[in-house]
Amino acid sequence: MTNATMFHPRALLRILGVVALSAALAGGASACAALSSGEPRTGWDAGSSDEQIVELKITNQNFKDARIYALWDGERRRLGMVNGNTSQEFRVQWRPGATLRIEVDFVAGGGFVSSGVSTWPGEAFEFVIPAHA
User: Fold this and answer.
1) Are the CB atoms for 104 and 9 separated by under 8 Å?
2) Chain centroid to CA 55: how far?
3) I need a labelling partner for 71 at 20 to 30 A (CA). Which of 16, 45, 79, 114 fits?
4) Cβ(25)–Cβ(115) under 8 Å?
5) Contact 54, 83 (CB under 8 A)
């Protein structure tokens, strides 16, 4: 498990920038902490080197189950499902120059899209779906 002390200074600055951005995210999604996933890669990021991966932890504080999508400058990719009051880790292939947004689609209806964040390969983010979303 990677922790924040193991990141390069540039990655730490990027994460701190995301923390500052979290107050302005649409729909209450926030981005903050760092982590890694030991899960094998499948689908659209299979075969990517670890240097070209962005790691995401989605924490769903809402009771509603949510389908999660990564949006890279208009390209929409389904990451998976995060049940209510649980967390799930995902690894996605980094897109050079693209802005990452997270789309939350609640199974019971409704949802939102976060504001965009710039990413670098090897960075890790946590997006929190608040209880009141």
Assistant:
1) no
2) 7
3) 16
4) yes
5) no
35-65 burial, b if ≥16 CB within 10 A, otherwise e?
bbbeeebeeebeeeeeeebbbbbbbbebebb
Look up the CATH architecture of domain 4-129: Sandwich (2.60)
Per-domain residue ranges of the chain: 4-129
Distance of alpha carbon 66 from alpha carbon 27, whole angstroms? 14
Which two structure tokens, joined as six digits, stand for 130? 């608040």
For residue 2, which amino acid is it? T
For tokens 């302005």, the residue is 24
Q: What is the pLDDT of residues 72-124, one digit of tens each?
A: 998 999 999 999 999 999 999 999 999 999 999 999 999 999 999 999 999 99
Name the residue type at position 76: R
